[in-house]
Predict the 3D structure of the following.
Amino acid sequence: MRALTVTPSTGEFAIRDIPMPAMEADEVLVRITRVAFTRRDRLIMENPGTVPPEGSTYLIPGHIAMGRVVEAGSLVKNLVAGDLVVPTIRRDCDKCIDARSDLCPHPDKYMDSGLLRAHGFAREFIVLKSRYLINLPDDLENLALLLTPLSVAEKAHGEAVQILERYNYYCFHNDDSFPPRTLVTGMGPVGIMTAFLLSLYNYRITVFGRRESDDSRSAVFDPLDVEFINTARVPLERLGKAGYHFNHIFETTGDPAYIMRTLPFMGFNAIMVLMGIPENVTEGANLEINGTALFSRMIEGNQMLMGSLKAGRDAFNSSVKHLTELSDLYGKQLSGLITHTFPLEEYHKALALDSREAILPVLDLT
């Protein structure tokens, strides 16, 4: 079967013929139809956290994909041939509770498809245990690739809400505390889907995006009741002086310097969820901060900082429900997030894309 591969020693991409995977009784054979080729996939070998499978001279990229079940093993009861599925990224250590494989505490044992010790999905067929496959209704086929970034938002929002339940109070001196003010930073697929998910709740949403021009991403939030601020044109310091403060901040840029400049926007009893991993851990790693001011503000303000990334099965299942709702409300706008589609053989065109134009490029394997 055909597969897109990248060689760690050279960073070169190539299409190879590789053997068909064998299937056990508790596994499922899936025909991959489309795989996203995100900026993280395109720059995969520049990420020090990228580790090919043990014994392999190459890595198959692609951590966001969709496909159809070809065959289910005799022990699989929840999937049948023809089902539309999306594979999850994380594969746990085989000792974790199925629904929360994303919380596996053994980084030397778990694997992330296309990223850490496991091949990704840019190939014609995959074999996975059924617990790593999420079943979607057929009417979501055009939006199925959005399920994975939506699941990241789903997990982050769910964790933040649970934590903030301890602040179930109202202060009559603050008549502006409801609905909660929520900030999303970043305009990649995860940032965009976070804003769309939050639009289903009673939040006042602001998005900070850094766009040098009015490119295709600037209009993404037009159908939502969202305040978009281009921080490439409006300095963050000016917004701070204008009194911008938030109950929740969902940070998806992964830029350490930008994160530090965003921390002052946390209000009292607020939480910031870090959802983006820095692409280059050496840049911005050495930051000068006023630790006394930072930690005093966080302690006195009951503020919280937490990390959240890959989702477990429970968040994926909730995302199917919410993707259905979003499809009914904004189906046309969401389908526009898939900005480019190329056949697998033309992967080089996806590699050459300008990130200002490409939101979610796709390789078609049909």
Q: What stands out?
A: The longest strand covers residues 27-36. The two ends are 12 Å apart (CA to CA). The longest helix spans residues 313-335.
